[in-house]
Amino acid sequence: MSSVRSAPAPAKRASPPPGPGSLTKTQRRLGRDWRLAVLFLAPTALLVGGLVLVPIARSIITSTTERHGQESVFVGLDNYLALVSDQQFHTGVVNSFVFTAYAEIFKVVLGLAAALLLHQRRRGRAVIAGLLLVPWVVPTVVTAFSWRALLDPIFGSVNNLLTASGIGPLLVDLHLVDSWPAGWLSDPSLAMPSVILVNVWKGVPFFTVCFLAGLKSIPAELYEAATIDGASTWQRFANVTLPGLRHVITVTVTLSSIWTFNNFDLIWLLTQGGPGDVTAPYVLVAYSKAILQLQYGAGAAVTLVMLPIIGALVFVLVRLLRQDTGTPSRRRLQAAQWAGTARKALPWVVAAVVTGLLAWASPQIFWKAVVVLAVFLLIAAAVGRVVTGLQSRGGRRSSSVVSRLGSGVALAGLLAFVLAPLYWIAVTAFKSEGQVVMRDNDLWPTPWTLDQFGALFTNQPFGRWYLNTLLVSAASTTVALICAALAGYALARLRFRGAQGFTVTVLLTYVMPGALLFIPLYQMLIGVRLTDSLWSLVVTYPTFTLPFATWLLVGYFSSIPVELEEAALVDGCTRLQAFGRVVLPLAKPGLLAVALFTLTNAWNEFLFAFVFITKDEYKTLPVGMQSMIAGDVVPQGQLAAASLLVSIPVVIMYAFGQRFLTEGLTAGAVKG
Q1: Which terminal residue of the chain, N or C, has fewer Cβ atoms less than 10 Å from its own Cβ?
Q2: Is the alpha carbon torsion for 487, 491, 492, 494 positive or negative?
Q3: Exposure string over 637-647, b if 16+ CB within 10 A, otherwise e
Q4: pLDDT for 324-356, tens place per residue?
C-alpha cells in the first residue's frame, strides 16, 4: 500500500511570486517563503535529524570502538576486519539474500496472478480484495504464532491434512522433504523454505493491491488494438500488460526488497534464527552482538557493512520515483533512447545472475522453488491453452465457462491459502483447554467457550499490554500527523531553497531500516535513562511513521487545487489562515490515510519494543505475546485469544477507513 508510482510533482504556488524588486536580499537567496518554511519544517527536521541522521552518524563512530568494561576504546577498522573471518556474519548475509530473493520471486508471481484474476472480475472484487488484504494488516506476532502452530510437526494442522490426503508421503518420494512427519521449522533443510512461505503469505496482499492499481491504469485501447491484430492471450500479457506494469513492478519489488532484506521480527518470532543459524539474517547477527553480547561496535559494523546494498536499492527507488517528474531535457531524451535496448536486456541479465547465485547459495531450496513454480506455471499454461483452443474453434461460450471456472478455482485456492491461518486462530480462541491439547475436532470448537479469554487476562498482564499499545500508538500517530501536515504543506506549497533536498532526505529516512537505527538509539536511550519506559517508544517510533506520513501528504497537498488557496489569500487570509481554514479541511482523506497507516505501524511494531523494553509493565502487545512462550511451553489457546483481540481493532479500522485510504493514496502518494 506504499507509494508505487512516482513522487509527487511540484505543486503550483498559492500566489504569484512578487517581482524581483519586492524581494529582500535574504528572500532572493533563501526563497520567498523561507521564514514560514523554517517554522513549518522545524519539528520534522528536528525529529528526523535527531532520530535518524544523528544515530546513523553515531553508529559509524561506534563501529570503530570496542567495549572494555564500562569504557569504549577506539579500535579503528578492527570490527570490520573481524567480519572477514566471522562465519556467523557470512551465514547471516547469505541467509538475508536467499530469504529476500525467493520471497520476492514468489510474491511477484502470486501477486501478479491474484491481481489479474481480480482485475477480470466485475462482482465481488472489492470484497475479495479486502479479504486478501487481511494478512498484510494483522500484526506480525499474530502471523508468526498462527504459522508456528499450523507447522507444528506433531500437532500442526498442515502435517495432519497432508497425511490424511496422502500428499505428505508423496513429498518424501519427490525428495522435497527428508522424512515424515516433517519438522517444518526445526528441520535445517525445511526451516528457510518455511520462513519464506510465511513471508510470502504476508506480503502477497501488498503486491496484489499495487499490481491491481497498475492494471487499472493501462488503457483498454491497447488491449483492443492487440486483439484486432490477432494477438493471443499470452501475447497481450507479454506485450501490453507487462510493459504497462514495468514501473509499478520495479518500484514495488524495490520497496519490498528493502523491507524483506532487513526483516527481523518475523524470523525471530518463528525460529529465532534456528535451527542453528540456518534462518538467522544479518539483522539478527547484529542484535546478538550488540544487545546480547553488549559489543556495540561489532553490532554496528554488521549493520553498516550492509549499508551500501541498502543504499543501492534506495538509489534505484529514488530514481524510479523521480523519473516521471518534470519536463525531460534533450539530454535525458537522448539517454533514454540510448538505454532502450539495454533496458530490454537488463531483466534477463538480472534474472540469469540471480538464478545462478541462488542455485549456488542454496541448491536444496533452489530445486524446491523450481518445482513449485513449474507446477504453478504449468497449470496456468494448461488452462490458458484450453481457453485459447476453444476460442479458436468458435466456442466462445465454452471458453467463457472454462475461463470463469479456472478463475474461480484459482481464487478459491488463493483465499484458502490466505484465510486458513486466520480461521485457525479464530476457532482456537473459542476452544476449551482440553480440546486444544487433545486436538479434538480441530477445525471447529466443541463446545464454544470463552475460557481462553478469561485465562488470558488472569494469567497475563494482557490488559496492561493493551493499554500500553494504545497509549504509544495514539501518541506516535498524533506526533506524526502534526509534524507531517506542517512539513508536507511546506514542501508542496512554499518556495524556499533546499526544498528538493529536504524531500529526498524524507524519502531516504522513510526506507531506512530499523536495523541500522536500533543500536545507536538503544545507546542514546541508555544515556538519557529512557529504556524500560513508554517514552522510549513514543520518542523513537517517529523514525518510521513520520517520513512516510510526510511523503504521502506532500503528494496530497499538491493535488488540492491551488486556486482555492489563492481565493482565500485574496480575501485577506494569511498563509497560516489559508492553511488551517482551506487546505486542512480538504486534506481530510489524506490525513485519515496517514493516521491509519501510522497507527497500524505503531500498533504492530516489534523490534524497537523488543530491544528497548524488558519489564512486563511496559511491554506492548507484540512483545508481551512473544513473552508468553516459555521454551517449548506454548499456551496456544491464550495466544489465539490474544491474537484475535490484537487483530480485530486493526481490521475494523481498515474496513471503515478503506474509502479514505483509497482516496488518500490515489490523490497522494500514488499520484503519477
Answers
A1: C
A2: positive
A3: bbbbbbbbbbb
A4: 444 444 444 444 444 455 455 555 555 555 566
